[in-house]
Write a structure and sequence with these properties.
- With about 240 residues, this protein is an alpha+beta fold.
- It folds into two domains: about 130 residues, Roll (Transcriptional Co-activator pc4, Chain A), CATH 2.30.31.10; about 100 residues, no CATH class.
- It has a four-stranded antiparallel sheet with strand order 1-2-3-4. Strands 5-6-7-8 form a four-stranded antiparallel sheet. It has a four-stranded antiparallel sheet with strand order 11-10-9-12.
- A hairpin with a 4-residue loop joins strand 10 and strand 11.
Length: about 240
């Protein structure tokens, strides 16, 4: 078994990417992007596209549709006061095509595609049931939560390895935001971080005020200067 999975279903207009970063995390992601009028595709790194995080319970519901136990399943996701309608439905009650609607994005899967999706999601669910529900995974989450609290306290007190003060270069109070993401690429001076909303942003290491693990695709917490997140339209 491996830690991460990624598989894409692309058509002429809409692409669907299935992602699971860690087998000990009780969720997975569906990422959708559209083809633009000029023939290019939306770029997640520019905040384009749509990303939805599905819990273990929701994965089970989706698999029920893929198993053809039920004809459809729908739900709502709320993020920052924005509601996204989600549905998985067999076309007109027939079992030949599966329609996936997530917000304004719609993707239809043919037999080979929904068969692969069914097998992939069953495999991912089996992994996560084994590794994301064990006592060791809960201990890890508790440790991560405690580590995050320590990091935030160090940032507030000015005791972190990247900056020994809680003030910026102009002597003003530094505003730092704790966010969740994973490292996709690294240079000497910066990290390309994919955040849990799907956005990918290059962040200078000097603007990261927490320790981090260099392992690629490892979901972890980062304490980052708020202004650089705002500049990249990650926060308003």
């Amino acid at each position: 078994m491996v830690d991460n999975h990624s598989y894409s279903f692309f058509g002429q207009k809409v692409g669907l990417i299935i992602q699971s970063a860690l087998k000990n995390e009780p969720y997975m992601f569906f990422r959708l992007i559209k083809s633009k009028n000029d023939g290019s595709w939306e770029k997640p790194s520019s905040g384009e596209g749509k990303v939805i995080k599905f819990s273990l319970e929701e994965i089970v519901c989706i698999i029920r549709v893929l198993n053809k136990e039920i004809n459809s399943w729908s739900s709502y996701h709320t993020f920052k006061d924005s509601k996204t309608q989600i549905s998985f439905k067999w076309e007109n009650g027939e079992k030949g095509k599966l329609w996936i609607h997530i917000g304004s994005y719609s993707k239809v899967l043919e037999y080979a595609q929904f068969t692969i999706l069914e097998m992939l999601m069953k495999h991912i669910l089996k992994e996560k049931i084994e590794f994301a529900t064990t006592s060791s995974s809960f201990k890890k989450k508790k440790h991560d939560k405690l580590s995050n609290i320590i990091v935030q306290e160090e940032v507030i007190s000015g005791k972190n390895e990247n900056n020994n003060t809680n003030e910026d270069d102009n002597g003003k109070p530094r505003e730092v935001k704790s966010v969740i993401g994973s490292i996709k690429k690294e240079t000497i001076k910066a990290l390309l971080i994919q955040f849990d909303n799907g956005a990918e942003i290059w962040i200078p290491k000097s603007k990261i005020h927490s320790g981090f693990d260099n392992t690629k695709n490892l979901v972890q917490n980062f304490s980052i200067d708020s202004w650089i997140l705002s500049k990249n339209k990650f926060i308003s």
